[in-house]
Specification:
alpha+beta, Neuraminidase, 3 domains, seven-stranded antiparallel β-sheet, five-stranded antiparallel β-sheet, 5 helices, 22 strands
Length: 457
């Protein structure tokens, strides 16, 4: 119990504003004690301050405040990411739209790279949705848009592959028609491969212009092309090409067959690994024969092992001393026919007249030599057929003429006249191939060939 005066002093400041009538009769009693003093008894409800609850409330409030701040920082981060993703999505959309306009101009690798970027975008958006841990229309729309673009890219890639298959099919049909037309046109030129049972060349067909060389550049004026004149088993259909912007040898491209030659799809190439003078080179028995760079030596490279051999050709003039009239630095002209490998050149002793040597392929050396009476600088080019040397000269801008031949069997030479048309004014390479009895020409960067007709005996 509390004395009345102390109680009133204590409660006056806090309870004075509450009328005593409102306290209720059950809470206040009054009376006198044994000494006659007035005593007032007040029964108040629990007035202890809830400090533990306030502390809990403050702690909870602080935790909520931290969570709100963390949530706000995450939202700011997500907002910045959304800006980046949105820009990436715009860029990808533009690229996909461009691809839709011309899907046939893109490779499988380009489609694969675009698909990888879309997969990365999809993974980032999925991660963002999981971080927010809720469904958002913005995230859902972004995710759907990426899925749509992925579908479009897949369709475009299928279109690209299908289109390529269609193009290859059409190309095959066109090639067949061309071959049929060529067969019909050249019915009189029926080759008897490997036979020399004829009286020599009687006629040359019209030129067949195949296409630009592998560099697809008319600036590659110097070069040659054709087939291996003595192919290894399994490489009977192989073609080769070498071309450069000046009269030097710097590369060699090999193609498994004629179709891959047209598609420029080489199975082996040597780019800037070879170095030689001139371009009257040849493939024979899986070897590439050429003039060694800046010397009067002969070179050959094994197309399988890449090993290069060199040989000295005695007395041969070089360094553009007696080159063909069609091109410079044609000191040595390799040729092949039904009898084997030959090299055509000139010497100081022959006073610039053409010299012809039959090569021993195994020893890579000259085994027999003939000297002609035709000055090499008068000649545009030359080639061998069945042991007979044929030389050409220019008649006018459009006509070339086989004007001279030398028979190594009899040692007889004669002047003849077998004109044939040229597609272009100049040419730098002309060689006969006994594997198909064709003349292969390289002119203005183009592959050109002729069928050869022989005189019957």
């Amino acid at each position: 119990m509390v004395p009345a005066l102390l109680l009133f002093a204590l409660l006056r400041s806090t309870l004075a504003w509450v009328p005593i009538d409102h306290w209720g009769s059950g809470n206040v009693t009054a009376g006198a004690d044994e000494n006659g003093q007035c005593v007032c008894k007040v029964f108040l409800p629990d007035t202890s301050f809830p400090g533990d609850k306030v502390e809990l409330l403050q702690k909870t409030s602080m935790e909520l405040s931290q969570k709100v701040e963390l949530g706000l920082s995450k939202l700011e981060l997500y907002e910045s990411k959304l800006v980046i993703y949105a820009q990436k999505l715009v860029n990808l959309t533009v690229r996909v739209e461009i691809m839709q306009g011309r899907p046939d101009q893109y490779t499988e690798l380009e489609f694969e790279l675009l698909r990888i970027e879309l997969q990365q975008m999809e993974a980032l958006v999925t991660q963002l949705r999981q971080s927010v841990n809720s469904s958002s229309p913005i995230f859902d729309l972004l995710y759907v848009e990426i899925q749509n673009m992925t579908s479009v890219v897949n369709q475009l890639e299928r279109y690209d592959k299908n289109n390529l298959l269609v193009m290859q099919h059409e190309f095959t049909k066109l090639q067949k028609k061309l071959e049929d037309c060529q067969k019909w046109h050249d019915e009189s030129f029926k080759p008897d491969i490997g036979s020399c049972n004829h009286g020599g060349i009687s006629n040359i067909s019209m030129p067949y212009i195949v296409q630009l060389g592998a560099h697809v550049n008319e600036g590659y004026l110097y070069g040659g092309w054709g087939r291996d004149s003595k192919p290894k088993p399994g490489f009977e259909d192989m073609y080769w090409y070498s071309g450069y912007t000046s009269p030097y040898t710097y590369n060699l491209y090999l193609y498994s067959d004629y179709t891959n030659l047209l598609l420029r799809n080489q199975f082996k190439y040597f780019d800037n690994t070879l170095k030689g003078n001139g371009i009257n080179n040849i493939m024979h028995g899986n070897y590439y024969y050429y003039n060694c760079y800046n010397t009067g030596n002969l070179c050959r490279m094994n197309a399988t092992t890449f090993v290069v051999e060199t040989r000295v050709l005695p007395d041969a003039a070089w360094n553009n001393r007696f080159s063909y009239s069609s091109a410079t630095y044609q000191d040595f002209d390799f040729a092949a026919d039904e009898n084997g490998l030959w090299v055509i050149y000139a010497t100081e002793a022959s006073k610039g007249n053409m010299v012809l040597s039959k090569m021993n392929v195994d020893a890579f050396s000259a085994q027999q030599t003939w000297v002609t009476n035709v000055f090499r600088r008068r000649v545009s080019n030359a080639f061998m057929v069945c042991g007979v040397l044929y030389a050409t000269r220019q008649i006018n801008l459009n006509i070339e003429e086989i004007f001279y031949k030398y028979d190594t069997k009899t040692g007889k030479e004669s002047y003849i006249s077998i004109p044939f048309n040229k597609q272009y004014e100049g040419f730098v390479y002309l060689d006969y191939n006994p594997a198909d009895q064709r003349l292969y020409m390289y002119s203005k960067g183009y592959y050109i060939y002729y069928n050869v007709k022989f005189e019957k005996i």
